[in-house]
Amino acid sequence: MNNFSRERFKTGEEYSRALFFLSPFILLFSISLFQVLNLTLFQGDKYQTIAESNRIYQKPISPVRGFIYDRNGTLLAENIVQRDLYVTPAYIEDSAETILKLSNLLDVPYELLDENFSRGVKKVKKFDSFPLVKALNEEQIAKAKVNLDSISGIEVKATLKRYVLHEETLAHVLGYVGDISSDDIRRDKLLAELQNTQIGKTGIEKEFDYVLRGKPGIQTQERDVKGKLVRILDTQGAEDGKDIYLTIDQKLQDHLFKLFENRRGALVALEPKTGLIRALISSPSFNPNILNSIVDTDEVESLFSNKESPIFNRAISGQYPPASTLKPFVGLAAIENEVISWDKTIKDDGEFYVEGDPRPYRGWKENGHGRVDMRKAIAESSDVYFYTIAFDLTLAGIRPMLDSFGFGKKTGLTDFEANGLLPDKKWKLGYKGDFWFKGDTINLGIGQGYILATPLQLAMAYSGLANKGVIYQPQFIQPEDEKSFEPKKVAEIQLSDNKAWEKMEQALVDVISARNGTAHKVFDANSVVIAGKTGTAQIKSILPGKEYDAIRENPALRDHALFVGYGPVEDPKLVVAVIIENGESGSEVAAPIVKSAINFYTGGFDAE
Amino acid sequence: MQNKPLSFSVDIRLNQRRNLLNFDYSIVLTVFLLGLFGLAMIYSASGSFTLVLRQAMYFFLGVILMITAAMSNFRKMEPIYLNAVWIGFFFLVLVLILPNSGTTNRWINLGFIGFQPSELMRFLLPISAAAYLTRNPQIKLSDWIIVLVTTLVAFILVFLQPDFGTSAIVLLSGIMPIILSGLPWRFIIYSFLGGIGTLPFLWMSLMDYQKERIYTFISPEADALGSGWNIAQSKIAIGSGQFFGKGYMEGSQSQLDFIPESHTDFIFAVIVEEFGFLGALGLFLLYAFLIHRLLYVAKSSNSKFAKLVSATLSIILAAYITLNISMVVGIFPVVGMPLPFISQGGTALVVNMITIGIILSLRRTT
């Protein structure tokens, strides 16, 4: 009873007050009803006429996407007209019959059309149209045009689609375009008014989308009651996207792409004196036109699920151990820190031991190279020599030199590149949960262990060697006038002895020219003189008692082959970094590509 | 009721048996009719089966919550109702803090489901206010002031989102319990005059698009292709429906996308275009009947709490219905309010159905 007693006080006024405050709404409600009566009955005829008469409609006009050219004005990406067959469900009397007719006419399986139709019908309104068959071929267009009038509710619409001319060759540089997703609009509100337009999803298409995209226009149209266009009243033209000229040399790119023969790997070729990228390859590649106009979803599916990951851009996002290609930088650090001099020799008998540790650090050559100085150690790629100087240098001695050559840092070429990894004590403790051991420094000395670099970073670092310490900002956009172009310096490395650059270069020339050089196989008296360094990156560490021969039975565990070089040495025009995944021998598979690139580019014997 | 001891005990036993399922079935039936009609109209207006399916899931959830609320004993729920407002405040603050995706901050996304905290507040606030005002036999002036301050804070939070329409509803939902619970008339009149005094300041704090809507209402022809377009198209749709309508899914205005937001705020225009004046009249009668039955709870209950809650929630519901329809027919500015039980929108539907459930529970336990 307690509940009742506490509420037993004056009530009753609530209801009457509620009615009082409800009265304005009741009044508005009644006026609304009268207004409906007024509109439907008293003015119904008038509105009926308006509804049935022609109407003004505003339709956005898509801008034309800018073209992409190479440095010489060769067209790389354009737009082509794609004709799609559209169907409007409201104007179709018997869908089964219509589909059968179309299936016979266009030679498309009935089941496919039927599936497309029933999927499309659910997505759009009755009076809206949707694409039933995308990208009609010439024959289909001709047949459809002749027979179109006998089938109601069908029309052929033309839209512009991105088309890349050299297909696979430039896929990773250019990237691909796609429809605007709601996520894209959330990130960039300007996109909301660009319906039915494609935008860049990766590569240059994405990075410079704001240039290529343009601005949409508006067309004011008069349409009849069935939504059909009567006439165009006003057109505010779209502002088309601007064209882009890339630093890429299409001929060089084409030539080098063929040399990859679809092997997994990457290449970056740039001008050391300007940072302009002349070729950039990631292999295997894909045909961006498949993604640019989504015709066959199965093909797209297979692109993304392919184990060789053709979509992935290995040249800027692939991170590999630099292996012996790191030795010149470790060598310069050792000279700079006076850990060793150019002439001092170290005995390399194939193994290196740290005091108190019985495990040997083995060199790649079983019995070693004998007594080696810096020049010979680079040319023959003596591991024991670099184990020794790395051990003496310690991590603190090696790291600053590698850092100044750009290892472990983004180059700023694109937003999508990987960082690489320049490890330090803090990193190892944080990510591996372990302290930095001397062994880690020793491994770093030959570019193994934790350090990772992208092919782009390697090319950049070697451009520093070619320029005697200066590194320029890499870029994809071709300057209007190359001669007056002033590249931006991103690093200027000073050595206490300026002659060190020439001495290191001599050692790198020996790699190919000297009889014992690791890449002497590619030596060719007709070739321009090239300075470079081989590398063989181990993916799996060889455990004691196991031999590499046992590991190499699994092709996926075979070593990566690297070669980074530049030439001609007297006036470096091109620096090239090549990696062939599981290619095993840098001198046999990577060095020939670098040699070919430099000769082709400088008009040497490889040029046509 | 003055019962004799004997008949009283019989009544109790009868009550206990029928107790849980003793609600006003005419209200439940009306809500079902409106909800199902809404699903059909959303399909016609949007042509999207996905949207209908999503709305149907909310409707199903709403039915479960409505029945659950209707079967609850509101006297036992009172302590919960008293504190429910804090849930509303929590989400209102959260929605302002969280990074937003557009120019307005109205949604909270829980990943699988999104909802509008302001919709929640306009239903939690009056319930808590009623519970607070009736917790003691006598209402003190301080009680009214505390409820008023709480209401103003909630109003400002929604206004900041910014959501002009719903903030007005939140204000109404907090002030109604104060007024209905017996605040002396002179206070009401002073506050009303004071409220008018703040109008100029309110105007200055409106967003540009909100001001534009009011300009548009005053002179729709001024911007025939901009905001006036909505009203003009909506009127054409309604008028061309004439007496019998053009038939389900046959409205050219709606099907050709001339009506903006046809499946949400402007769904009434689609209804009249396709079902004509007759359809509109039918809908008006359903709504009038629903409000009438809901108010009957306020009239017949002998609990002050029940009276306050049912009267306030009924008025709020009536406000939504009236403001939406008068906006669509062009006699009120566009304020962006959904048509209860019919417009597409999950939060509003579920909240409205819980509202009905609670009013049903108030009636049963009296």
Any key phrases for this structure?
heterodimer, A: 608 residues, alpha+beta, Penicillin-binding protein 2a (Domain 2), five-stranded mixed sheet, five-stranded antiparallel sheet, 23 helices, elongated, B: 366 residues, mainly alpha, 72% helix, globular, disordered N terminus
Question: In summary, what is this structure?
Answer:
The complex is a heterodimer of chains A (608) and B (366). With 608 residues, chain A is of the alpha+beta class. Chain A is elongated, with a radius of gyration of 34 Å.
What does this structure look like?
The complex is a heterodimer of chains A (608) and B (366). Chain A is an alpha+beta fold and 608 residues long. In chain A, 38% of the residues lie in helices and 18% in strands. In chain A, the strands form 7 sheets. In chain A, strands 2, 3, 4, 5 and 10 form a 5-stranded mixed sheet that branches. Chain B has 2 domains: 25-67 and 221-366, no CATH class; 80-206, no CATH class. Chain B is 72% helix and 1% strand. Chain B has 14 helices and 2 strands; from the N terminus they run H-H-H-H-E-E-H-H-H-H-H-H-H-H-H-H. Chain B has a two-stranded antiparallel ribbon. In chain B, a hairpin with a 4-residue loop joins strand 1 and strand 2. In chain B, helix 6 (141-159) runs antiparallel to helix 7 and helix 13 packs antiparallel against helix 14. Chains A and B meet through helix 2, helix 3 and strand 1 of A and helix 7, helix 10, helix 11, helix 12 and helix 13 of B.
